[in-house]
Amino acid sequence: MTQSHSLIPALLTDKVAIITGASRGLGAQIARQMAAAGAIVCVNYLKSKEMADKVVDDIVKAGGQAFAYQADVTELEQVKALADEVVARYGRIDILVNNALPSYQFNPSADYTSIETVKWSHFSQQMDGIVKGAVNTVQAVLPQMKTQQMGKVINISTNLVYNPVVTYYDYTTAKSALIGLTRNLAAELGQHGIRVNLLAGGLLKTTDASSLTTEEVFDYIATTTPLRQATSVADFANSVLLMASDLSAAITGQSIAVDGGLTMP
Fold first, then answer.
1. What pLDDT does 3 receive?
2. What confidence tens digit (pLDDT) does each residue in 162-196 have?
């Protein structure tokens, strides 16, 4: 165990990472753990400047390197400016984590959980924020990654795409589209040394999205999961670190569930 922990700081040493939607929740945890593993981190945010600055402050106080940058991932020119700023500061972009998510309420009784009441506007909001956002960020970092002839793109999805226990039509459809995007990107960009993978999380303990989830629900998930525990935010972030590191050099085009075996796609 000691040896394992001693290797973590070197896992991403001097790698330069952009994490979208990193001011809070899972994105913030990924940023902190990447920085702890040696990466230089760009903490992207849309509105939560104070929270993004807090993430950066936490990283710097812990001895890491990070800076915050405001950009709307649905606006291509804004994320191109973000990528340009990262290259101007550090000369490279090694890792892109597409984590940004449009505002969403996981409410099982909402009108977007039934095909009879869901509106196309629900779908378009999620498709723009999730799929268009990922397309924009990839297009923004691609020139630099092609110049380097290497890079890692990690798309964040949900295990609801494999097992829609709640029929969030708009959210799950957009997250499912990321699987197709991931595979196409991997097929095209592999020749440039760029690996593209997707990690699909379950109900994580605990993020903003699951903050109202009761212990009874988490306990139920634990009893139906092979590992007999709900997946923590830190555990999911560690999976992102694995995919971002050189340890996963032979993996691309994959859609991997990170939920303790709850789903086995």
1. 42
2. 999 889 999 999 999 999 999 999 999 999 999 99
**Which residues are CB-contacts of 257 (< 8 A; sequence separation ≥ 6)?**
159, 162, 200, 201, 202, 263, 264, 265
User: Would you state the structure tokens that stand for residue 87, as one six-digit string?
Assistant: 């290259």
Query: Which residues of the chain have a pLDDT value below 70?
Result: 1-9, 205-215, 217-218
Which residues, in sequence order, are CB contacts of 22 under 8 Å at separation 6+? Answer: 28, 30, 31, 41, 43, 44, 45, 52, 55, 97, 99
Residue among 205, 216, 108 nearest 166 (CA): 108
Q: End-to-end CA distance of the chain, in Å?
A: 30
What single DSSP character describes residue 24? Answer: S
Single out the catalytic residue among 162, 169, 171, 220.
171
CA angle 252, 238, 44 (to 5 degrees): 85
Q: Cα separation of 195 and 210, whole Å?
A: 30
HEC profile of 52-94 = HHHHHHHHHHCCCEEEEEECCCCCHHHHHHHHHHHHHHHCCCC
Q: Which residues contact 57 (CB under 8 A, 6 or more apart)?
A: none
171 is catalytic: yes
Please write the tens of the pLDDT for every residue from 188-218: 999 999 999 999 998 776 666 645 556 676 6
- In terms of Cβ atoms closer than 10 Å to its own Cβ (0-12, 13-18, 19+), residue 106 is middle
The DSSP bridge partners found for residue 232 are 205
Phi, psi of 161 (to 5 degrees): -70, -20
Of 71, 27, 72, nearest to 51 by C-alpha is 27
